[in-house]
């Protein structure tokens, strides 16, 4: 059995682990490490400590399936739809321009439920709060070091974190990258933005009719009545609302104190929705690497950095910066591992 380490428990890493299990169970032992406290990555669903509040999606909001991806990822969509993890998103998204034949879906239990599903299907050993800092080449395997200083060896390593975080890794990664690969990775560009979740008490009912709305403001770009978006508004649980800032605001305020930025966003939100009641809780998230603006040329799905010991990078930067892009990337990693092992 080859020991495979998938770094990153976001959508790419979780689908990758799941498909490895389904297609190569007898050949691989799968381990998934993530530096965060829980899985999800940019498909993160946040809860307020008060259990009478609904959760809120801080990253990805809904899934837009194009006709092409509906066809090629048919099995993934049917699996998630049949389990109730995905549902057609039929309510109003003001300002969304949906192209011909595309369909929106939402995740009734939050976007992280999809990631958790694939991780659970993978049977992988998932370890959170394990921050990979260095990779060393040791004969036919990789020795992987974490921030706490512990080291473990793997036959194959798949890196699924955003590209700048791959390039920050110490050890031998920089030594084995070709000049062309280095240039391609250096060329990847991400947008940055802030997300704020507001959690309300159970007696609150929003006075507006939309579920989500795009805004042309310099600070706020998008607002979602998050629990309504997921058809999750039920008596006894307070609704949640999510705000995403514009990319220009994200860039301008990236290095500022989060509390200061949160105050600016909330001030703007209450100008936009003056009747909004006061929340019982607020959470602000800085997405330094939000969506990919410039991907690796020709969207190859993954990049094999070294054949032996095998080191592969994947994620939305190697495909498209959305649900289907991650699935496509994970599929291409699994095809590469099947060919190699
Ligand atoms: C604000 C926002 C809105 C979005 N809206 C949508 C949308 O509506 N629809 C849509 O389809 N997509 C949307 N996206 C894009 C979508 O969320 C991403 O394309 C997708 O989640 C990327 O998944 P990933 O697994 O490739 O990367 P990530 O989710 O970033 O996962 C990488 C993981 O690696 C971990 N990690 C990083 N460095 C290390 C390290 N050194 N050691 C260990 N672990 C590490 C991270 O903690 C993370 O969990 C949105 C993204 C954002 C941020």
A few lines on this structure:
The chain is built from eleven helices and 23 strands.
| Dominant shape | globular
How many separate structural domains? Answer: 2
CATH class category label of the largest domain: Alpha Beta
The overall strand count is: 23
CATH architecture of the largest domain: Alpha-Beta Complex
Which segments are poorly predicted (pLDDT under 50) over 5 or more consecutive residues? none
**Mind summarizing the main beta sheet?**
6 strands, mixed
Number of helices, where a helix is a run of at least 4 consecutive DSSP H or I residues: 11
| Structural class category | alpha/beta
Q: What is the name of the CATH topology of the largest domain?
A: Polyamine Oxidase, Chain A, domain 2
Percent helix range = 25-40%
Give me the side-by-side strand order of the main sheet.
Answer: 9-2-1-13-23-22
- What distance lies between the first and last C-alpha atoms, to the nearest angstrom? 10 Å
Overall average residue pLDDT: 96
Oligomer: single chain
Backbone CA Rg: 20 Å
Beta-strand content estimate? 25-35%
Question: How is the topology of this model organized?
Answer:
Layout: E1 2-7, H1 11-24, E2 28-33, E3 45-46, E4 56-57, E5 63-65, H2 67-72, H3 74-82, E6 87-88, E7 93-94, E8 103-106, H4 112-122, E9 125-127, E10 132-138, E11 141-146, E12 151-154, E13 156-159, H5 163-167, E14 170-171, H6 173-176, H7 179-186, E15 189-190, E16 193-199, E17 212-214, E18 220-224, H8 226-229, E19 240-245, H9 247-252, H10 258-272, E20 281-287, E21 292-294, E22 302-306, E23 310-314, H11 323-340
Helix pairs in contact: 1-4, 1-11
Bound molecules: flavin-adenine dinucleotide.
